[in-house]
UniProtKB/TrEMBL annotation:
<dbReference type="InterPro" id="IPR051019">
    <property type="entry name" value="VLCFA-Steroid_DH"/>
</dbReference>
<keyword id="KW-0560">Oxidoreductase</keyword>
<dbReference type="GO" id="GO:0005783">
    <property type="term" value="C:endoplasmic reticulum"/>
</dbReference>
<dbReference type="InterPro" id="IPR036291">
    <property type="entry name" value="NAD(P)-bd_dom_sf"/>
</dbReference>
<keyword id="KW-0521">NADP</keyword>
<comment type="similarity">
    <text>Belongs to the short-chain dehydrogenases/reductases (SDR) family. 17-beta-HSD 3 subfamily.</text>
</comment>
<dbReference type="GO" id="GO:0004303">
    <property type="term" value="F:estradiol 17-beta-dehydrogenase [NAD(P)+] activity"/>
</dbReference>
<dbReference type="Pfam" id="PF00106">
    <property type="entry name" value="adh_short"/>
</dbReference>
<keyword id="KW-0444">Lipid biosynthesis</keyword>
<dbReference type="InterPro" id="IPR002347">
    <property type="entry name" value="SDR_fam"/>
</dbReference>
<dbReference type="GO" id="GO:0006694">
    <property type="term" value="P:steroid biosynthetic process"/>
</dbReference>
<keyword id="KW-0443">Lipid metabolism</keyword>
<dbReference type="InterPro" id="IPR020904">
    <property type="entry name" value="Sc_DH/Rdtase_CS"/>
</dbReference>
<protein>
    <recommendedName>
        <fullName>17beta-estradiol 17-dehydrogenase</fullName>
        <ecNumber>1.1.1.62</ecNumber>
    </recommendedName>
</protein>
<keyword id="KW-0752">Steroid biosynthesis</keyword>
Length: 301
């Protein structure tokens, strides 16, 4: 007996086919971006954008790993963070290990507009080819509701300044010289939380959604002028911010993550950073798409 094909059956079949096509496309894209060595751009291509790279939040975690990896690929490094002693330590390590020139700039990105005049003055005479907007913060290491904890107003202001304002202002400072030269790379470190709201990480996920949207818009505006703006949205990386998680199959070390993420430059403007995280991102995205409206509403309560 042949099955009856009503409207709901047809709709279900179309939805299943679309999900299968999307999964196939994303897996194929992941293989191209993350696993094909011949597709990757080399260090000479990276250095051709400018002699210096600027990295915010450069003394730990992903920022530190990006600074070292960029230096290993031949760029001089400007490290920006709030601790002078840590900055000087990392600068010496980069010079010792990679033989590159360094500069350090002390800045607390929870501050407002007043911090950027000094940063701009320090960067004035440098040919900057790469900007890594990495600095970021959460309420606390454990997820919690918006109003929980102490000093809520200050914490909200700090996250807006650190996670959002820093990306926009650092882009404002460095983008003009890139446009003048007709080349430059801006890497904005976002998060897997940028794709939809995350209860108990409300401010963090919203700030990363801003980073994603801002990156795509500015990237579209300046792509014709030779500027690459890449959004990197990792899953878990073993940093101070995610100290409860240890490196393993799903959780990358910062060094491994930065190396693989930099290999995607010139191949994609929107990446998870590595193949493992791309697969996790695909899986979570398909899970969200297959939830019913009722399930989605229960999830967000």
């Amino acid at each position: 007996m042949e099955p009856e094909w009503g409207p709901l059956s047809v709709l279900g079949a179309v939805a299943a086919a679309w999900l299968l096509l999307r999964a196939t496309w994303e897996l194929g894209r992941g293989v191209y971006v993350y696993l094909l060595p011949r597709a990757r751009r080399g260090a000479p291509w990276l250095r051709a954008h400018g002699a210096w790279a600027v990295v915010t939040g450069a003394t730990s975690g992903i920022g530190k790993a990006y600074a070292h990896e960029l230096a290993q690929r031949g760029l001089n490094i400007v490290l920006i963070s709030r601790s002078l002693s840590k900055l000087e330590l990392e600068a010496k390590e980069i010079e010792r290990l990679h033989g590159r020139n360094t500069r350090v700039i002390v800045a607390d990105f929870t501050g407002g507009l007043e911090i950027y005049e000094a940063i701009e003055a320090e960067l004035q005479d440098l040919e900057i080819g790469v900007l890594v907007n990495n600095v970021g913060m959460v309420y606390s290491r454990l997820p919690q509701k918006l109003l929980n904890g102490e000093n809520v107003a200050k914490r909200i202001s700090d996250i807006v300044n650190c996670n959002i304002m820093s990306v926009v202002q650092m882009t404002r400072l460095i983008l003009p010289q890139m446009v003048t030269r007709g080349k430059g790379i801006i890497i904005n470190i976002s998060s897997v939380t940028d794709s939809h709201p995350w209860p108990l990480l409300a401010m963090y996920s919203a700030s990363k959604a801003f980073v994603r949207s801002f990156s795509k818009a500015v990237g579209a505006e300046y792509f014709p002028e030779g500027i690459t703006v890449q959004t990197v949205s990792p899953f878990l990386v073993a940093t101070n911010m995610t100290s409860l998680f240890k490196p393993g199959l799903l959780v990358k070390t910062p060094q491994d993550f930065a190396r693989k993420a930099l290999d995607t430059l010139g191949l994609s403007l929107d990446v998870s950073g590595c193949f493992s995280h791309a697969v996790q991102n695909l899986g979570s995205g398909l899970l969200i798409l297959t939830k019913t409206p009722t399930e989605m509403s229960h999830t967000s309560e």
